[in-house]
Amino acid sequence: MATLSKKKSKKKAYDASSIQILEGLEPVRKRPGMYIGTTGSDGLYHLVWEIFDNSRDEAMASRCDEIEVALLPDGWIRVADNGNGIPIGIHPKTKVSALETIMTTLHAGGKFGGEDSSYKFSGGLHGVGASVVNALSENMKVVVHQDGGMHLQEYEIGKAKAKVKKIGTTKEHGTIILFKPDAVIFKEGIEYQPEKIIAHVRQQAYLVKGTRISVIDARAEESAFETETIMLRSKHFNAPSMTFYFDGGLKSLVAFYNKHQTPVHKNVFYVDKEQDGVFVEVALQYINDITPRITAFANNTYNNEGGTHITGFKTALTRSINTYGRAANILKEKDENFTGDDVLEGITAVISVKLQEIQFEGQTKAKLGSTEAQGATASIFGEAFSTFLEENPEDSRAIINKVMLALKARKAAKAAKDSVLRKGALEGMTLPGKLADCQTKSAEESELFIVEGDSAGGTAKTGRDRRTQAILPLRGKILNVERARLEKMLASEQVKNLVVALGTAIGDVFDLSKLRYHKLIIATDADVDGAHIRTLILTLFYRHFRPIIDGGYVYIAQPPLYKIFRGKDVHYAYNDTEKVKILKEMGVVNEDIVVDLEEDKPTEEGEETAAKTKKANVQRYKGLGEMNASELWETTMDPSRRVLKRVVIEDAEAADRIFDILMGTDVASRKSFIQSNAKTATLDV
Fold it and tell me: How many Cα neighbours within 13 Å face the side chain of 608?
């Protein structure tokens, strides 16, 4: 007891001195995830979006019609606009320049609404964007062109290095911000992909009509820092660039999304109108597909989790189509109404709302929470879409026929699904005969290997850890579900086996909590057929089990390509680079002296010869079925040694378009995509 008493006496008391006060931008560096969501790749791009959005807000306020985003050497990003420029006068409360106040103080900016607000609509509700980027940057520079003067202020880890100083005269107006993310915060590395920035910028160019937005890849130009950092327009960059300018707004964006699709009706619906301080813009077109594609924005910020504007849109869409169907006598008195799922099938829609007192759920602005957006969207869109249906009879008939087909398919799918579930219930949820299940009942411990063919399946069943690892072999290439309805999917034995094995059911009764395995590992051969089978399985997961991917449960196995051995010295190589490295480490410096045994496995005599002559035997695996059980366990299944790649969706819209192209019916687009990306593909033929 004396010892316990002694320990208690050393414990620090919780009193007033225990309360920490984080000053300035310290909270941002202490908890960066609270402000940008993550310090991984997404957070890195979030810094760019925050600065770009400030320039975009200038365009929304009709004070800017040109924006440039440039990737500079050593991880620097440069964003320039020809807006009014950030004010540089002394702020009455902080007693320092307004520029320094904005860049070094949380919740400081001109976007908080009110009669004197400089911005009618803005995505920067919290006023923390620029200062957060500053706090998370190793260095930042801001150049302001304003009132004939060119002014500069520099910062280091969120703190001003000196006061704002005039560095020259100018006839232009606008703001240039350069920043270099801090490697201490972004430990995964500072590397930007131009393609991702281009995709974001292209989307924004559709949303801000009449604004010219450019992306410049000047990472190879060291001279960029010498002159172009202080000039508004990067006229002297000798670097690849792309410029976007659209007058059609969301109507053009829908046409862009549908360029690889077959439209059901000719005219793209479009409306833009303001009601009670809420500006609503909607464009839509139905296509010959079964997947709905709805993209939402609030104050030009992409809301990947939707929000109140989506709720208002869906409500009005269902009501308008049902009302028209009844009035046109297409829906008879005895017929049931179309459901929300019916009217959404095959729709491509973009909804954009703008309002002053905007409310997002979190700083990353993934979901709109403003209640007034729901009513305004439902009212404006509902009235305009009803008029569109009445004034465009050919389009209306095509849309109603599309929705009617969806209703019939829903009923057929429900019957097929109920049949599968009912059969499973009657048989005590009988699992597929080819499934070799694991012994544990804990989903957290369980792994399901989805393997290609019975040969690999047999080897995997022999080599596995029976307690935690289950094996489901799939025969050949499963059904391409990209254009298949649910009833056709469930008629496929291979797909049905996988659905039953997962345990989550499918469609509107899908329940992620019933997933039987928390690691779903796709294990296919390292050849063209194996890649095709893997893509077919991923298409099934993406289209019908998206929450399983989002939950981080889907993985791709990485079996080795080579087994390299000399005597009892055995190594596995997962690619050609590793093979060369291993051979060098074994003293085999010239690959020409390697005995390559693709067809025949080495004999004991061959191993002895190789050991004596400093030669190595290299066995090339062409498929999982060529491995014996112990080799498959050592290389692909043993949790302590295997290599798995988790499947993640970084850009849902891009993934959606790629699945459309690769698995859809547009042969010309697929051929073009393959030709364009052939250089980045790794094939084994």
Answer: 3
